[in-house]
Amino acid sequence: MHYPRNDEANRRATCNLPEGVAWHEGISCERLRQCLQARLSEPLPGPMVGSKYEPFPTLGRHYGAAPENARRAAVLILLYPHAGRWWIPLTVRSATLPDHPGQISLPGGAIEQEESPETAAEREYREELGEFAKAVHVGRLSPIYVDASNFRVFPCVAVTDERPALIPNPAEVAEVLEVPVGHLIDERSLSYHRRKYKGREYRAPHFQWHDHRIWGATCMILGELVSVLRDMQP
Of 60, 94, 181, 187, whose CB is crowded by the most CB atoms within 10 A? Predict the structure, then answer.
């Protein structure tokens, strides 16, 4: 399903959006799947929006070819409805994990041999947060390279029609965050802070959610998702 990018009336009709209702609150599960599948089958914004969401200076670290020895990983962006809104679960990683301890991430992990990114993302999600109702994969966002852990990450997007149980595995997850899609779309949620890495200071964008800063690779992935969702917004 494709529609002209500049035809707002057609886009509203295609996504079944009633007048006066925010699309991310009023859209049905099936329509959201259809609209995301259509948009994710088109060219992705990737580096075009990356500079807004990745730490600066970027030094060309995140997009493009990854090192030959980079490990492959997948994360799952699971969109689900609850209380009239759409949400995404994030995790605060356990302080005992070897990679990115204590940071906020999407559920996911390393891709095992002969696994697809989607299979790996679902397996890792279940290891971290338990079972969820059947989800429909609607596509992927741009892969990014995470220099700190040498992972090339494939973000997989899926939609389910009910809120998952969200039972954290204490060995991997210190806390579960449920973040409304509408909050991420709101420009006021994006802020900046300073960080040091390998002796260099960076200006790091982050989404603020209560007292949590969602930054780094997770911010970049969610930033591209926001761009994709805004493309769908009438």
Answer: 181
Domain 8-232, CATH class in plain words: alpha beta
Rounded mean pLDDT of the chain? 84
3-state secondary structure of 37: helix
Contact 224, 48 (CB under 8 A): no
SS (H, E, C) 44-66: CCCHHHHHHHCCECCCCCCCCCC
What residue spans of the chain are helical by DSSP H? 8-14, 23-26, 29-40, 47-53, 117-129, 181-185, 216-232
46: left (phi over 0), alpha (psi -120 to 50) or beta: left
Per-residue CA distances from 158 to 138, 194, 207 (Å): 6, 33, 21
pTM of the model: 0.86
- Alpha carbon distance 198, 194 (integer Å): 14
